[in-house]
Amino acid sequence: MAAPPAIAARGLVKRYGAVEALAGVDLEVAAGEVFALLGPNGAGKTTLVEILEGFRRPGAGEARVLGEDPARAGPAWRARIGVVFQSAGFFDVLTVREVVAHFASFYPAPLDPARVIAMVGLDGQERRRLKHLSGGQKRRVDLALGIVGDPELIFLDEPTTGLDPEGRRQLWAVIRQFAALGKTVLLTTHYLEEAEALADRVAIIIRGRFAAQGAPAAIGGREEGRATVTFHPAGRLAEAPLPPLPGLERLPDGRVALATAAPTRAVAELARWAEALGEPELPGLEIRRPTLEDVYLRLVRAHDAEADAAAALPAGGSA
Amino acid sequence: MTGSRRFARLALLRLQVELLTFFRTPDQLFFTFLLPVLFVVVFSTIFSGDIQGPPGEPAVPFPQYFVPGMIASGIVSVTFANLATGIAIEQHEGLLRRLAATPLPRSAYFAGKVALAFVTSVLIVIVILAIGVAAFGVSLPREPAKWAVFAAVLFLGAGSCSLLGIAYTRIIRSAGSAPAVVQPPYLVLQFISGVFLQYSVVPGWLQAVASVFPLKWMAQALRSVFLPDWIGRDDYGSWQTGTALLVLAAWFAGAAVLARLSFRWSRGQG
Ligand SMILES: Nc1ncnc2c1ncn2[C@@H]1O[C@H](COP(=O)(O)OP(=O)(O)OP(=O)(O)O)[C@@H](O)[C@H]1O
Ligand SMILES: [Mg+2]
């Protein structure tokens, strides 16, 4: 029997006046999974995450997080959950050590505060007051407070925004460490490489709806869609006419490119062509799948175009 | 650990952090302690004369009259005003949200706040009394019964005003506006409750308004501790100490209900 999912939500809707922040979202995150939410500003990521944390009430739909309704769950449930808000105030006059130790004291089985401070890269800053920390250092305090309770499930809302590259890597290491212990992570991010590096699955949320969902390598048809084969003909290959493959074109920089749904066949034919000319290798051969960024931008642009078209319709058109 | 031991431990940890925060915030220290001290010094210096009694009774120096009122007002400041302002700021700056995301019970948060209010109340009483006695010759009561009244006013007054402060955060809409929303009613109450002047000077209809709120009763009961009975007769008809304590106890209970009903743990989102 499979373990129950850490997060299961169905038909979540949240409206703010005329804004539909969530327009019917279904989400299931398995225990032990790292799940990343991507999406433009205002897409509804924070709204979704905070409903799952129990800080906002959905207008419709239902959510179960670690088997409980987040809107009603009590302290025992909170003890199993870690939260890193997109933004929250700071206890300005307390030191890093005081704050982390204070929060640790709320949990039944916290991590050692000194270790947590080291994990987020704040060693050496323990005695400084929060108001004297830099923006990125404060973000690290947020992270420390999110993990110090040793939660089973961590919500991270744009955890690496404002972190320097090393800080980002440190956080990635922390997330991987948690994931390796079988813990569940739900994070939002604007860094696609971050989602790709960390997540088992990602969802792209646009205007309150999931536009795509899947493993980062496969999302949006990355594995099935058209791939681009390129190589750089040199020597005899440069002089010979190209083989008659449809779509083959010469790029200004001298390379040859082919966008195709059947890249394996294309490479085989190109190899035969080269071999016939006495060249065993295709110089500079690359097969490129669309990146997560390509997929993301394609989806966002498609939705923007759709929205523009809808806005151009006379009043009374469906929203 | 049993529930109540865990609660006590967490409330104590909260108090510790509240005290650290309080004493590391110089602005707050200034307004909390220096302002009442300044008032005592300035008023006692300006009105250095005596209040004349009926024939046969010795006159009462003005500081002896002013200090108990100032103690009442100081208690309201560190309970009602400080809690309402402090909690509203924590609420609107998202600090409360951080705590709400942890297993810390809400009750422990409030226990920490109210405990802070009690500790600072005791401190402000000591500071004002020390200045009154050392600089302005205020004389302390000798009868244990009077000290018992003092303790009862301190307890009931600090308790009810703390809870009122918690309830009052409901109408504070942003961190920045907190002092502006908290100070005016407190200031007005100080005047109409006769803290800065003799209560008998306050017009009757304003006395009626003041009688609804705790400050008037706190000042009155504390004056009964420090002043002879003829002042009670002149100013209030009589000291009405029993009534004062009953009113404060009623406020304590009512404020507890009010705080419970009106407080929102986290705000600014739906
Ligand atoms: N408390 C609120 N009151 C009114 N509107 C809100 C509120 N919270 C969010 N919204 C609106 O709901 C939409 C979704 O906001 P949300 O914060 O969830 O976006 P997001 O995906 O987290 O964006 P970002 O990447 O900028 O953090 C936005 O249009 C926002 O303006
Ligand atoms: Mg957000």
From TrEMBL, chain A:
Molecular function (GO) terms for this protein are:
ATP binding
> In its UniProt entry, what is this protein called?
ABC transporter ATP-binding protein
- The ABC transporter domain, residue ranges: 7-232
| Species whose genome carries this gene | Tepidiforma flava
InterPro entries per the record? AAA+_ATPase, ABC_transporter-like_ATP-bd, ABC_transporter-like_CS, ABC_transporter_ATP-binding, P-loop_NTPase
Keyword annotations from UniProtKB, A to Z: ATP-binding, Nucleotide-binding, Transport
Among Gene3D superfamilies, the record links this protein to: P-loop containing nucleotide triphosphate hydrolases (3.40.50.300)
From TrEMBL, chain B:
Q: Where in the cell is it found?
A: Cell membrane; Membrane
What InterPro entries does its record include? ABC2_TM (IPR013525), ABC2_TM_bact-type (IPR047817), ABC_2_transport (IPR000412), Nod_factor_ABC_transporter (IPR051784)
Which residue numbers delimit the ABC transmembrane type-2 domain? 27-266
What Pfam families does the record tag this protein with? ABC2_membrane (PF01061)
Transmembrane segments annotated in the record for this chain: 29-47, 67-89, 110-135, 147-166, 186-206, 243-263
The record describes its membrane topology as: Multi-pass membrane protein
Q: Which UniProt keywords apply?
A: Cell membrane, Membrane, Transmembrane, Transmembrane helix, Transport
Query: PROSITE patterns, per this entry?
Result: ABC_TM2
Q: What is the top-level taxon of the source organism? A: Bacteria
- Record's family? Belongs to the ABC-2 integral membrane protein family.
PANTHER family the UniProt entry points to: NODULATION PROTEIN J (PTHR43229)
Protein name, entry field: Transport permease protein
